[in-house]
Design brief:
The complex is a heterotrimer. Chain A is built from 13 helices and no strands. By secondary structure, chain A is mainly alpha-helical. In chain A, helix 8 packs antiparallel against helix 9. Chain A starts with 16 loop residues before the first helix and ends in a 5-residue tail after the last helix. By secondary structure, chain B is α/β, with parallel strands linked by helices. Chain B folds into two domains: 185 residues, D-Maltodextrin-Binding Protein, domain 2 (3-Layer(aba) Sandwich); 197 residues, Periplasmic binding protein-like II (D-Maltodextrin-Binding Protein, domain 2, 3-Layer(aba) Sandwich). In chain B, 53% of the residues lie in helices and 14% in strands. Chain B has a five-stranded mixed β-sheet with strand order 2-1-3-13-6, sandwiched between helices. A four-stranded mixed β-sheet of chain B has the order 14-7-12-15, sandwiched between helices. The two termini of chain B are 43 Å apart. The longest helix of chain C is centred in the last third of the chain and has 34 residues. Chain C is built from 13 helices and no strands. Helices cover 70% and strands 0% of the residues of chain C. The chains are: A mainly alpha, B alpha/beta, C mainly alpha. At the A-B interface, helix 1 and helix 12 of A face helix 3, helix 4, helix 18 and helix 19 of B.
Chain lengths: 310, 414, 293
């Protein structure tokens, strides 16, 4: 009792031990419940609300006249939406693949007992700390043929050098990939680095003694053990790809034409600038379905795996 | 959860006290650049002299798109600003929702009906009720040309389509960029505005852009409009995509490019660069649109606030409409007053010309709302047309496809 | 023979090592370039920027753009610079990070050491908060903030950031505490220690690495937030990112790129400092299980 008296919530001297025990039993749930309640309302409630809006005739603000599946059929008849989906497929797959490869590669390189790791690591990581509102102008300059990389390389004497992707409607989406990789690959590297550092060295030593080549050791022993890191990286990158918004706005604002439209920019513009909130909500529902199809299996695995501690 | 709610309510009660005071206006706007902010500061000074303090709520970006998102959140939360800068059909859309204030008493007292052009009133009144105070009128069918290049090549000011094309060709042949342009949807649309008017004339503009008549949208004339857009595209440099309009103006100012098609706000860029109208640069109506004025007008839309804050709101509306402010503001901003009875003494030659044009077009009934700036059709339609115009301008559609897509897009957005 | 190999690093030849360094330095340059462009151009006079070599070092060094961005740039009607908004951001970020971290730690503790039926389901449901696209919550959130009477205030923004940070903070702490020996908790329970006491005396002291990860994560997310800031703040609570946006994306007039870059670096400074100072702990924290599946 005396020991417990420091914990104000549980130390009412007038409580009998049995009441206290019962309170102790309830306390964990009580602590968890506010968090769970706000998430129920602010995540699931809002998702339900969006789902409902997608069946209404909402334009400038939510209204509640039901129109059935009309917004969905409208949505799939809009050329821009198809373009947004196509772009997401291109952007998403390149972004995930390049970030994963680059992140893994850098992590392996950085794991070779590099002098100056303490300097290099924050350099690879810092882009994660900056939003595109901050770096957007710099990127735009960089990719602009008139003042950016093309201009600079040409002024170094390589006159025929061309890099005008951002102005080219078939290539512009790849500039978005370049900037997105810049931002996220360092974080992926950190995840892989953490994974690498967690691997048991004995097996590697044994393999070395057996005379296995470095390449073989990585391919056969180390990389297969990074499974969880790959999975986490995939989930983080996939949902970032679907949610990508800032960077498109900062780099191209969806242009040239509408060549770099993504689902998130589409959803924002229909909901907030085109006064077609119903269509915007329908596109949001599609986005949510895409996200859920990636996330739910992951969450399931996460919850399963965590059941017995580790 | 309950505790949070209670806490929130208590906090709110404490916090919202100052905001409920009678003598404050909170103004949501996107005039954040130096010249614009200086112009707005005139209003702030006027109000503060009258004991009304100004709470600034600037939200820049995308010609007000960001600000409109913020406005939705504010209105949904039941916490609208006193006044919001707004354009064209957006005003009417908000009026439909019944969240705007009624300014009729003030309008009657100050006789706004008589001094504001009818074409503007179409956006400042909803079902007979004054809901907004117009600040300025911009006109979009202007061409800005580098006078030195014109002189050097001994070119005349073009007056019709053919002479425009031959002039641009001559400029291009001399090694300049003929047409300075920034590849952003609204800039493409600004050119489209003028080309529709020049190609089809006022009646066609009315039918296609304002009445959204499918026959006009799908007509041979519209095909010609797109062909002409394609012609103009040929005079733009390769590096145009994403360029801001003021950088395009800079190309004309620096003598890199011959001309730019842009609204009269471009004048400020030329004047800031120390250029003299008539000497260093020329401004003339887009060839084929002489006599018509295509306008957009910034207005301060007043939101319904209940009893609190109404006095300050009325004071602000009155200050916006005072001839002295309209003159002072527009001299700084480069636009012309929304009232037709403001003395033109303080304006430069371009400004006086703009005021005369506006008055004349108002008399003659040739004052048309600009499609590109949301004064011809609601946001959904406007953006749907943007999509087609910009896709065509970027070479994704040929002219035939563009016409088909235009009809389809407008129908889909209505 | 492999005595010196303490971690996963393999033996490499001299040539190989040179190649590794070359690659690492090449990528370091790639990552640094945008920051370099911003820094270099923020100390040039505007004329020098117009001449057009964005990578050139300044010929004439000037600190003026920084002073302007901080204290006298035109952000709205008032020429206040970014300074007042910097303070607003701090006042939002600090409580939001603190509350969400504390709640995340408690949640993680409950979910791993006080398992009850359905705990895993609840955790799974809570994770969705990490993945929801923020654009869809704007309107209903505005409605709720209005109903609570905290629309347009700092408290509203803090609430929003706490809610959407909870998923991550709970995930981080849960995974970290899952690896913590449950026997210690059991033993303390038998000794009669209560819920909070066990947390404070046994788990908290060894939570250093994961607290660092969580704080870095939350700090950068909340500090960099623009969408919520612009939608739910009013004139008195506008955060730094919104002011920066007003500074750099104003629609007309002369663009003072040097001031824009100086402002951008100023806005990024706190997160940069946090990353540089604690980057080492970040990887350590990740190793400790924050992101592992």
């Amino acid at each position: 009792m005396a020991v417990l008296s420091r914990d104000s919530e549980v130390s009412r001297p007038d409580l009998t031990p049995s009441v206290r025990d019962r309170f102790q039993a309830w306390l964990p749930k009580l602590v968890l419940s506010p968090s769970f309640a706000v998430i129920l309302v602010f995540v699931y409630g809002f998702i339900a609300f969006t789902g409902y809006l997608s069946f209404t005739d909402s334009r400038i603000l939510p209204t509640f006249g039901l129109v059935g599946w009309e917004n969905y059929s409208d949505l799939w008849s809009i050329r821009n939406w198809w373009r947004a989906i196509t772009n997401l497929a291109i952007f998403g797959s390149l972004y995930i693949i390049i970030c994963t490869c680059l992140g893994l590669g850098l992590a392996i390189l950085l794991d070779q007992k590099i002098r100056g790791e303490g300097i290099l690591r924050p350099i690879f990581l810092y882009p994660m700390a900056l939003s595109f509102i901050v770096t957007g102008t710099a990127w735009k300059w960089f990719l602009d043929p008139g003042i950016g990389i093309e201009h600079i390389v040409q002024s170094w004497g390589w006159e025929s050098f061309e890099f005008n992707w951002i102005k080219d409607r078939t290539m512009a989406i790849y500039t978005v990939v370049i900037a997105a990789v810049w931002q996220s690959s360092g974080f992926v590297m950190a995840m892989f680095l953490a994974g690498l550092r967690g691997i048991d060295n004995e097996i590697i030593k044994a393999a070395q003694i057996d005379g296995a080549s470095n390449f073989r050791i990585y391919r056969k022993i180390i990389i297969p053990q990074l499974g969880p890191a790959f999975l986490s990286a995939f989930v983080v990158l996939a949902h970032l790809a679907i949610k990508s918004y800032d960077l498109v706005i900062a780099l191209t604002d969806g242009g040239p034409g509408n060549a770099t439209e993504l689902p998130a920019t589409f959803m924002y513009s229909y909901t907030f600038t085109r006064n077609q909130m119903g269509v915007g909500a329908a596109s949001a529902v599609i986005m949510l379905i895409m996200i859920a199809s990636i996330i739910v299996p992951y969450i399931y695995a996460e919850v399963r795996g965590g059941r017995h501690g580790r | 959860m309950l505790r949070k709610v209670l806490l929130g309510t208590v906090c709110a009660a404490v916090i919202s006290l100052p905001a409920a005071a009678q003598d404050e206006v909170e103004v949501l706007h996107w005039w954040t650049s130096g010249g614009e902010a200086a112009a707005l500061n005139v209003l702030r000074g006027d109000l503060e002299a009258g004991g009304v303090s100004w709470q600034d709520m600037p939200v820049a970006g995308g010609g007000g798109e960001q600000a409109m998102t913020v406005l939705r959140a504010r209105v949904t939360a039941g916490n609208p600003p006193t006044a919001v800068q707004m354009l064209g059909f957006d005003i009417l859309d908000w009026a439909e929702l019944g969240v705007l204030a009624d300014l009729n008493a003030l309008a009657e007292e100050e006789n706004w009906d008589a001094v504001v052009p009818e074409a503007l009133q179409a956006f400042s009144r909803h079902e007979g009720v004054w809901i907004a105070a117009p600040v300025n009128v911009h006109s979009t069918n202007w061409v800005w040309a580098n006078a030195n290049i014109m002189r050097e090549l001994s070119l005349e000011q073009p007056t019709d389509w053919d002479s425009l094309i031959s002039t641009l060709q001559a400029i291009e042949d001399a090694g300049y960029v003929a047409l300075a342009h920034g590849g952003q949807a609204w800039q493409d649309a600004t050119i489209f505005d003028s080309v529709v008017m020049a190609t089809g004339g006022p009646e066609f503009y009315q039918a296609s852009m304002i009445d959204l008549d499918p026959d006009a949208l799908g007509s041979e004339t519209m095909l010609e409009v797109f062909n002409r857009m394609g012609q103009l595209r040929g005079f733009v440099d390769d590096n145009f995509s994403g360029r801001d309009w003021n950088l395009a103006s800079a190309m004309v100012i620096n003598g890199e490019a011959g001309m730019q098609v842009m609204g009269d706000w471009a004048k400020g860029e030329f004047l800031n660069a120390g250029q003299v109208p008539g000497e260093d640069f020329l401004c003339f109506r887009f060839p084929g649109t002489q006599g018509t004025v295509m306008f957009n007008s910034d207005q301060f839309v007043m939101f319904e606030l209940g009893d609190e804050g109404q006095d300050a709101q009325v004071a602000m509306a009155s200050a916006v409409m005072s001839p002295a402010f309209q003159s002072a503001f527009n001299v700084v901003k480069g636009s012309v007053p929304a009232r037709t009875d403001v003395p033109n003494d303080d304006f430069d030659a371009c400004g006086q010309q703009g005021m005369a044009d506006l008055a004349a077009a108002n008399e003659a009934g040739t004052l048309y709302g600009s499609f590109a700036h949301g004064h011809a059709s609601p946001a959904a339609v406007k953006n749907a047309i943007y999509d087609v115009v910009t896709a065509h301008f970027n070479g994704e559609y040929d002219s035939e496809t563009a016409v088909e897509e235009l009809v389809f897009a407008v129908e889909g957005a209505q | 023979m492999a005595v010196s190999t303490v971690d996963t690093a393999v033996r490499t030849g001299r040539l190989m090592r040179a190649l590794i360094y070359a690659l690492l330095i090449f990528f370091a340059v790639y990552y640094l370039l945008p920051l370099f462009v911003m820094l270099v151009n923020s100390v040039k006079p505007l004329d020098e920027i117009r001449e057009g070599n964005m990578l050139a070092l300044p010929r004439e060094f000037t600190i003026q753009p920084w002073l302007t961005a901080w204290s006298s740039a035109q952000v709205g009607v008032q020429a206040t610079g970014l300074a007042p908004y910097f303070i607003n951001s701090i006042l939002i970020v600090v409580p939001a990070v603190f509350i969400s971290t504390v709640l995340g730690a408690l949640n993680g503790y409950v979910l791993t050491k006080w398992q009850f039926r359905g705990a895993n389901l609840i955790f799974g449901l809570m994770l969705m908060a990490c993945f929801i696209p923020f654009q869809i919550v704007l309107i209903p959130m505005a409605q709720i903030l209005g109903d609570l009477g905290i629309a347009g205030t700092r408290y509203g923004l803090i609430l929003v950031h706490v809610v959407y940070g909870l998923g991550f903070t709970t995930l981080f702490f849960r995974n970290y505490y899952a690896a913590f020996p449950t026997e210690l908790v059991k033993a303390a329970q038998i000794d009669g220690a209560g819920f909070f006491r066990i947390f404070r005396r046994i788990l908290l002291p060894s939570s250093g690495p994961i607290v660092v990860v969580t704080v870095i994560w939350q700090f950068t997310n909340v500090w960099n937030d623009f969408l919520f800031g612009v939608s739910f703040a009013d004139f008195s609570s506008m955060p730094m990112t919104v002011a920066l946006n007003n500074l750099v994306s104003s629609s007309t007039g002369v663009r003072e790129y040097n001031v824009h870059f100086a402002g951008a670096v100023l806005a990024a400074l706190p997160t940069l400092v946090v990353y540089i100072v604690s980057g080492r702990y970040f990887v350590r924290g990740l190793m400790a299980g924050a992101v592992k599946g």
